[in-house]
Each structure stands twice: as C-alpha cells, then as structure tokens.
Amino acid sequence: MVARLDELNGAAWIRGNRDRWQRGERDDMPPGEDLQTALVSVVEALGPDLIARLAELPTKHREGDVLFCHGAPNTDMDSFLPDAADADDALLAGVDAQTIVFGHTHLPVDRRHDGIHLVNPGSVGLPFDGDPRAHWAVLHDDGRAEPRRVSYDIEAAIAGLHERYPGAPWIGGTTARLRRASFTGE
Known about the structure:
The protein is an alpha/beta fold and 186 residues long. It folds into two domains: 2-55, no CATH class; 60-150, 4-Layer Sandwich (Purple Acid Phosphatase, chain A, domain 2), CATH 3.60.21.10. The protein has six helices and seven strands, in the order αααββαβββββαα. The mean pLDDT is 94.
C-alpha cells in the first residue's frame, strides 16, 4: 500500500497515532491484548526503515485556509464526532483555518463549529458507521465537501489479512469490524 501511495505525485502525508505507536511512543495507547499484538505484527511486517519514515511525517498539512490533521489540530488522539461536543472548543483553540479535514474516529463528519467547517470523510479501509464501503471526500473550491463511497471486496481484504498474518490472534476482531463497519461487536 505504501508503494502505491508513493506513486501519487504531490500527495501530502500526515502522521497518525498508529504511526507514532509503531515507533514506540505508546504512552496513550489503549490497553488490550489484540491491539498490542496487532501492533507488533504490523511493526514486524513494515520493518524499521518504513516505521521510522512514517513516524517522522508531519502532524499537520495546510493548503490555504484548509488544515489537514489526523485527529484535531493539536492532537492525534482526540477528535471531532458527528455531533457537536463540549470538547470541540478546546480542540479548536488557536485555529485560524476555515476548514479542518481530519480522521481518527473512522466516522464521517461534515458540520460547522463557530464558523469552522469540520470534515472527516470516514475511513477508506475500516469505517465505523455501519457502511462497509471505502469512504473519501472531494473538497470543492467553494468549500463544499462531497462524500464518496466505493464498494470493494471485503472478503478479499480479509483473506489478505489471513495470508499476511496467519494465525494472528487479533484477526477475528479486525475481520468482525470490517464486516460490520463498526468498532463494536465481534
């Protein structure tokens, strides 16, 4: 996947919490054996050079009045939800962008808070809103976010996980989340 992304000329990459955890910065990593063993499996598969490269990515990218970040402008662990929350003001403190495009929650968001347009397309590979299609969005010049969803062969993706990580104890939870497009339920 990284090789394919490398082929995208002019693409801006930003670091997320997993990129940081893979490098060993795990003080804020939630407990859970599946999460820990999955992380170890991925670190082994990616290798030290790619782990270091991903950990060094910037945490934000700005293009004009649009700020791209993983969770919120100053954190990769907290984020905005589909509905307004009390924490939104703190997450937006000091932000001067008109639009923030983010991820982290795997949930689509397209709303405004104090004049700032908050956009989360959802997730390409592991959406949590009950719709298993890959989620992405187009930002138009007028500021409008156009959500898009594309079906893909989830069973082929699951077979690829089993092939790459045979017998891994965490695969059951991951495949359940892929099929349900939900973080909960196994």
